[in-house]
Amino acid sequence: MLKGFSTILVKELKELIRDPKIIIGMIVIPLIMFPVLGLVLGYAVETAQEQAQKATIVVINNDGGNWSNRFINLLNTTINVNVVNNITPEQVLAQDLLAKNNSTQFIEIPAGFSTNMTQHTEGNLNITAAINTYSVFSGGSVFSEIGSSTITNFVSGFNRYIAPNVVYTTPSTIIKGEIQTGVDPSTLSSLLLSQSIVLPITIMILLTYAMQIAATSVAMEKEEKTLETLLTLPVDRFAILMGKLSSSICVAGVGALAYMIGYNYLMGSFMIGIQAGTSIDLVKLGLVPSPFGYLLLGISLFVTLLSGLALAVIMSAFSEDVRGAQSLIGYIYPLIFIPTFALMYLDINTLPLALRTVFFAIPYSQPIIASKAVIMGDYATVIFGIIYVAAFTIVIMYIASRLFATEKILTAKLKFKGLKGFRKARTEQPEQ
Prior knowledge:
Elements: H1 5-17, H2 20-54, E1 56-61, H3 66-76, E2 80-85, H4 89-94, H5 97-100, E3 105-109, H6 113-121, E4 129-137, H7 146-162, E5 167-175, E6 178-181, H8 185-223, H9 227-232, H10 237-277, H11 282-285, H12 291-316, H13 322-329, H14 333-345, H15 353-361, H16 366-373, H17 379-404, H18 408-411, H19 417-428
Parallel strand pairs: 1-2, 1-3, 4-5
Antiparallel strand pairs: 3-4, 5-6
């Protein structure tokens, strides 16, 4: 056994445990962050289920026979139904019937449904009946298919009640207000789900890495006592701040550019895989960002990185060394991790207003929101997010400039008097 190993181990453990910043960052924050994330996801699931139960399903009855009425009556025992007779699916969209009924899907019972059902029940088992389902695609999330699964389960129950496999569904998807016949919304959401997971994780890694670089730059100056010398030089202090931020901005800019190149390659590989495995063409469906969308996404990521870097510089100014700066930066991570993991699985447009406002208010959720918005062509949301984060960045940079303009940049420390007082009291207790 290594001589003195246990002594060194105990010494290092005591030093780490006695540092309140490490205790809070490594233990307290995870114990708070993950339960909060669990509550958000659980609340989102419950809300989606409640909305699916309360929503009214628009049913287009183009058959008018006994079996179609029977189908509608049974459906009405499960879901609220609004029946519209003898119109086309395009007229449903033109009349805005989905919005009026707080629904994202509708069913069409085509002409001949009752005739086919009658023939099947009379012994001609080769005859089946079809119903057409239409669902609005809003960007893709794990919980977006809860409503459509209700219709699928009902059709399965109807088949068990009448005859096996007598009714089958033909799904279609409404994308950006246009009906895409034969495109299964479940398959489409599953295809885009991998993208919804990869992009937020990439953004999260890029943000945390860039903030660590900026924090280390200032903390190293304080730890090595070179910041005092730097501040005594005949150089404007704001120039020192901008120099440090500019170097980090260069790194952030390269990171944003690398992200966009990697994202473009990912989408290209993704298209090849989809075309080889399914008949869905995302380019034809308009679910690939345009050049303008790529530009907006890059700007959104850049201004978010800039705000994170400025905040990291401020946080690191309250540390005494590099380890302390990294611990303080860890306090910001929940504002990155919670939106990242939540928006992987949730469609922000389907969330309640209060929860949606919280996510929009967190600056570091904006690139993730933008990555989904550019696919749907919702450029207004992306532009609003860029303006919001830019304003937030200006405020943070102003605070940083004021901090560098005074001697507080040398003396500022974040103290936890309660924890230190408790530790001091424990050390001063006489041995029994």
